[in-house]
Amino acid sequence: MSHDENSVKPWGGRFSEATDAFVERFTASVNFDQRLYHHDINGSIAHATMLASVGVLSDDEKNAIIEGLEGIRKDIESGAFTWSVSLEDVHMNIEAELTKRIGITGKKLHTGRSRNDQVATDIRLYLRDEIDVIGKELTRLQQGLLFLAEREAHTIMPGFTHLQTAQPMTFGHHLLAWYEMLSRDYGRLMGCRKRLNQSPLGAAALAGTTYPIDREQTAALLGFNHPTRNSLDSVSDRDFAIEFSAFAALLMTHLSRASEELVLWTSAQFNFIDLPDRFCTGSSIMPQKKNPDVPELVRGKTGRVNGHLIALLTLMKSQPLAYNKDNQEDKEPLFDTVDTVKDCLRAFADMVPALNANKAAMLEAAKRGFSTATDLADYLVRKGIPFRDSHEIVGKSVAFGIEQNKDLSEMTLAELQQFSDAIENDVFEVLTLEGSVAARDHIGGTAPAQVLKAVELAKEELAAR
User: Fold this and answer.
1) Burial class (CB in 10 A: 0-12, 13-18, 19+), 325
2) 68-99 pLDDT, tens per residue?
3) Catalytically active residues, by annotation
4) What pLDDT shows up at residue 147?
5) pTM for the whole structure
6) Distance CA 438, CA 211 (A)
7) Cβ distance 155 to 149 under 8 Å?
8) CA torsion angle for 141, 146, 151, 154 (degrees, to 10)?
9) Could you tell me what percentage of the chain is helix, strand and coil, using 3-state DSSP and rounding each to the nearest 5?
């Protein structure tokens, strides 16, 4: 191919032969980065507006560019736009089409910028919008948790350590533990948004530009807090993508832990909760099965999100400044992380308020495993017995209960007093499940009154968002 024929590439002037067909396909990103079109067009409109304000473009040229870009946006959204792999990426596809539509003026749009600062700007704009969507879904899930926690504030269930019965609590209290995890996730998400909301536009390839650009103006037009401070770092930085992926990995880890509990609780062995049919599937061979597919899938998808975080960290770990082609590989992990997180949050936000607690099964389970043993030890301490001695006394009481197949609350006063004469009639006030739960009446405690207070405080927190 001649030099002139090869120059159909926007960067083809220096080359004397065509790009190999395989290499062209191998290096192209348009098949996945075309989702950036909306943000790419917004960035170009802001750039053209700024170029006109500093006298690099005339108003007529600016208006032609903006009108052309809006027409391209409309065609992309209607499905009428044809994407070309030979034009490599979303940026060159749009720019080539703009030039085709408005002529030589379209070629002036790239004055004072590079694809390096262009893509860095696009990804920040894209991720900022997605963070806002994810933040709303995360809030919706938290609202669902509060609705359920308030409803189940008095529903007694066993609390576990090592998956062994530990102490009684309420289902509402357990749900608020999930809420606290998600509150930390929300804080991390908003911190990420704050740090990414800087405009790299104007950094050009790596060292800025000699044109009299106004970076403050483009930053303001695009809703950024301010321009980035170093042109070299501006085009090289993908910390914001990694930070988002770290947030996503932690969020998915929290959803996975909740999913594991939901899977356990829906089993016949626990029978603590029932999931509505619309969140489950059946078996192709066993007609009795009702499988908790939604929480299982969320648990499974955690692995892919964790993998994307490692992929992005590994991608950046050896790159010299400034931009390298490696960075093309940042988009697919980031895009899939965004999509996965949004889907999982939507599934959970729809599912959680629809959970039905089997109160009788939870209460019966709390009666097994001597869950009020710690309350008996605390009772003895209040009677003046050192805790270690109290611990031994209760241990012997539990051994007796196992032998007699009796819970502590089912023993007679005489049976309990054989282990300590400090035990009196008032012991039964602490050995009941209700008494045990109500006794932990402090901030963060299991008492239903404290659960309801925590729900109200959380509602205020969400309202302030």
Assistant:
1) exposed
2) 999 999 999 999 999 999 999 999 999 999 99
3) 162, 283
4) 97
5) 0.91
6) 71
7) no
8) 130
9) 70, 5, 25
Q: Do residues 433 and 154 touch, judged by C-beta distance below 8 A?
A: no
CB 419 within 8 A of CB 397: yes
Residue matched to tokens 């082609």: 325
The residue written with tokens 């930070």 in the block is 243
Task: Output the six-digit token pair for 56.
Answer: 């690099």
Residue 289: pLDDT above 70? no
**pLDDT at res. 283:** 60
Task: Give residue 162's pLDDT.
Answer: 95
Distance of alpha carbon 372 from alpha carbon 158, whole angstroms: 10
Is residue 189 within 8 Å of residue 134, measured between CB atoms? yes
Question: Coil, strand or helix: which one is 303?
Answer: helix
Give yes or no for a contact between 347 and 258, defined as CB atoms under 8 angstroms apart.
no
Least confident of 252-266, 288-302, 446-460: 288-302
CA-CA-CA-CA torsion sign (352, 353, 354, 358) = positive
According to DSSP, residue 311 is labeled H
Backbone angles phi, psi at 237, to 5 degrees: -70, 125
Q: Is the pLDDT of residue 2 over 50?
A: no
- How far is the CA of 95 from the CAs of 40, 44, 121, 156, 346, in angstroms? 10, 9, 16, 63, 36
Stretch 173-181: mean pLDDT = 98
Q: Which residues contact 284 (CB under 8 A, 6 or more apart)?
A: none
Is-contact 395 446, C-beta < 8 A?
no
Per DSSP, what are the bridge partners of residue 164?
161
